């Protein structure tokens, strides 16, 4: 075996996963693609299915399993967080306002990274804070590109409308004025993963008296630039 690690069973399991990379395969297809004996290919595929690294399609063929997508998402999140620190610090320095990075978690959004304004009046959102998906510019961004059914559900009880989210998709950024918290304004833009799916939202937030009632005019471009840097890092995979 060309790529032998010295651990035979792992090498064979890797062969099975590699064979499934090109699409669904029957057991006979797996045997042909891997060169493994039929009982070995079957035993490994079933064991990998137990660990959710392999699954079956409607025709009973073997396919790559959901656990691989979960691991890939975790790797992507690590990359996102590794890049977020300097990007958020730069965004804070350019705008003079606190900067945050949010990811969606079910019906909530969680602050996974932040760079606080160093002095004066500021909007502090500690890392780990869980906020609703019903208000705020980051919630608008995380909701705007959802599939229609989830979008419709998410709009129930929200402080923003479908029309507002249509504007967010058109502009590529969102703003809110006192939507999440009285006296606080914010601007957010989407971070996109390799498949162009929105995976996070970058925001700046602060008091309305500084950000004004048109915060996007002041800070949209800086927030879009920061989101672009994070999206590029995810696409590069470094």
From TrEMBL:
Residues 67-236 form the IclR-ED domain. Keywords: DNA-binding, Transcription, Transcription regulation. The keyword DNA-binding applies. It comes from the Bacteria. It holds the Pfam family IclR_C. Coiled coil: none annotated. Residues 7-66 form the HTH iclR-type domain. This is IclR family transcriptional regulator NdgR. It comes from Streptomyces coffeae. The gene is ndgR.
């Amino acid at each position: 075996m060309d790529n032998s690690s010295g651990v035979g069973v792992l090498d064979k399991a890797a062969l099975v996963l590699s064979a499934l990379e090109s699409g669904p395969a029957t057991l006979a297809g797996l045997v042909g693609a891997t060169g493994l004996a039929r009982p070995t290919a079957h035993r490994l595929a079933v064991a990998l299915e137990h660990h959710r690294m392999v699954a079956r399609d409607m025709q009973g063929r073997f396919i790559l399993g959901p656990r691989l997508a979960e691991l890939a998402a975790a790797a992507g999140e690590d990359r996102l967080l590794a890049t977020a620190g300097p990007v958020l610090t730069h965004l804070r320095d350019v705008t003079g306002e606190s900067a945050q990075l949010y990811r969606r978690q079910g019906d909530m959004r969680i602050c996974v990274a932040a760079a606080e304004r160093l002095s004066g009046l500021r909007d502090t959102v500690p890392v780990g804070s869980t906020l609703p998906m019903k208000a705020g510019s980051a919630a608008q961004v995380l909701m705007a590109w959802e599939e229609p059914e989830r979008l419709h559900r998410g709009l129930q009880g929200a402080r923003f409308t479908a029309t507002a989210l249509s504007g967010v998709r058109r502009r590529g950024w969102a703003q809110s004025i006192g939507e999440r918290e009285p006296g606080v304004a914010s601007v957010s833009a989407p971070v996109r993963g390799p498949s162009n799916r929105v995976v996070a939202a970058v925001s700046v937030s602060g008091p309305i008296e500084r950000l004004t009632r048109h915060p996007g005019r002041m800070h949209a471009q800086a927030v879009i630039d920061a989101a672009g840097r994070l999206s590029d890092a995810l696409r590069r995979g470094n």
